[in-house]
Amino acid sequence: MIKVMVVDDQDLVRDGISMILDGQPDIEVVAQAVDGADALHQASAVLDLGVVLMDVRMPVMDGIEATRRLVGRPNAPRVLILTTFDLDEYVYDALRAGASGFLLKRSSRDELINAVRVIADGDALLAPPVTRRLIDRFADNQLDPSMVARLDVLTAREREVLVLVAKGNSNAEIAAALHLTEHTVKTHVSRMLTKTGLRDRVQAVILAYNTGLVSAGQPS
Description:
By secondary structure, the protein is an alpha/beta fold. Helix content is about 50%, strand content about 15%. It has 2 domains: about 1-135, Rossmann fold, CATH 3.40.50.2300; about 140-210, Winged helix-like DNA-binding domain superfamily/Winged helix DNA-binding domain (Arc Repressor Mutant, subunit A). The chain has helices at about 10-20, 35-45, 65-70, 90-95, 110-120, 130-140, 145-150, 155-165, 170-180, 180-195, 200-210, and strands at about 1-5, 25-35, 50-55, 80-85, 100-105, 125. It has a 6-stranded parallel sheet with strand order 2-1-3-4-5-6, sandwiched between helices.
């Protein structure tokens, strides 16, 4: 069972999301919070909290600071940012703070449910309208020698997997491209993240573009 907390300062938004998720057999909304500070307090009392759906702009404590504090805790839940605007500059800050992805509030019911399952499974998720902007933003950065050194620990196959992850391919698509099973791809992704000291696929994308392993002009 995926235990979820919904954090938003609007009652109707919290209740609506909770109703959708609670209707799924494998998801349970165990808490609702009205702002970041409330989320931190309630998260401390929930055992095995899996996913936090976090609004960005809230009073008392915003979603960025709350995310930063949450992911810094032992056995931290994974955070999925919910935002109204796909151009919201705060989204980029939230990803740097440790969020595992973000979803637009105008997303469909099925997209919301799928996002929670994807995040809970240890993957990362970026709303399609913003993925290109995110890549372009980090691709503009100069090469970071300290990040380049992380690539040296990877095998040739793990580099291949990293490139495909950075281009936005799912595990199934990577498996098809490399003629591997999805289980094998998951193993390669896990090893790649562990060796490079990265938390998830969002950070892997940033690494690949900041080191020049992938360039913004390359086709997916």
